Amino acid sequence: xxxxxxxxxxxxxxxxxxxxxxxxxxxxxxxxxxxxxxxxxxxxxxxxxxxxxxxxxxxxxxxxxxxxxxxxxxxxxxxxxxxxxxxxxxxxxxxxxxxxxxxxxxxxxxxxxxxxxxxxxxxxxxxxxxxxxxxxxxxxxxxxxxxxxxxxxxxxxxxxxxxxxxxxxxxxxxxxxxxxxxxxxxxxxxxxxxxxxxxxxxxxxxxxxxxxxxxxxxxxxxxxxxxxxxxxxxxxxxxxxxxxxxxxxxxxxxxxxxxxxxxxxxxxxxxxxxxxxxxxxxxxxxxxxxxxxxxxxxxxxxxxxxxxxxxxxxxxxxxxxxxxxxxx
Length: 328
Ligand code: SF4
Ligand code: FES
Known about the structure:
Order of helices and strands: HHEEHEEHEEEHHHHHHHH
Distance between the termini: 75 Å
Largest sheet: 5 strands, mixed
CATH architecture of the largest domain: Orthogonal Bundle
Helix content: 25-40%
Mean pLDDT: 86
CATH topology of the largest domain: Fumarate Reductase Iron-sulfur Protein, Chain B, domain 2
Strand content: 5-15%
Number of strands: 7
Structural class: alpha+beta
CATH superfamily of the largest domain: Alpha-helical ferredoxin
Low-confidence stretches: 1-5, 59-84
Number of domains: 3
CATH class of the largest domain: Mainly Alpha
Bound molecules: iron/sulfur cluster, FE2/S2 (inorganic) cluster
Number of helices: 12
């Protein structure tokens, strides 16, 4: 039986507390003092919890691996985490990890037992906790919101927390690699500095001509549903970087602004509250901006939020073309 520290406290609350109360009452009934009864009850309750749950260690709630404090030291938790005790379908997980000391990729295969709800991220975190603590992956929300767990699963850029392990498996094997469209930091973690710089370079915020209204706004910026629809789909970007990893142009020319930042140019340009006007488009009217896009469409296919950067870039190009013809 595999247990996490959260399970420990759940079992302790369900079984330990009632047992404790009953034992205190028995101790008092038999005429032992209050202190002796409580101590004896604590001891017996702990033994009940440990023997029924198979728990060998308790981690203090809120502590983290590496700095965790073990209350009951002595017996290895690994014994309760052995794969033979697990249920589910056996999957071989091949992890490609960037070794930042040798600047080479290391590959290692792990055995994992998955049920139908296991995600790739869940499996990797389990491997890190119970098989190999050197596995490195970045994640936060575990629900497709923060955009930090982008990896390549069996050749497809995906959010590890949204990829179902059994569905991703091909012949019982799942290969997980870091995204190669960004520089690598360590393990399966990419360096997003360049990505965020490109995002920041397009001024991804509403620009207003009256700078003072920020301090002395008199009313809200009302919009009707048509105005909202125009930019809403592009505002769902969670900055996961999967579109850049999928983009063949980014992979051959790192100076290309890329689908994420370009989609944000269109997002703010389409917003009726923005007053930067055509200048937004002119800023990316370059060979490495909008015109760098070769319309492979792989960015939109990879996007987990349906942002469709490819369409944003084509709309941008057609707007720039109109302007070009108007000048002639
Ligand atoms: S456009 Fe989609 S794939 Fe690209 S960073 Fe935003 S959410 Fe991720
Ligand atoms: S952990 Fe947040 S998107 Fe995957």
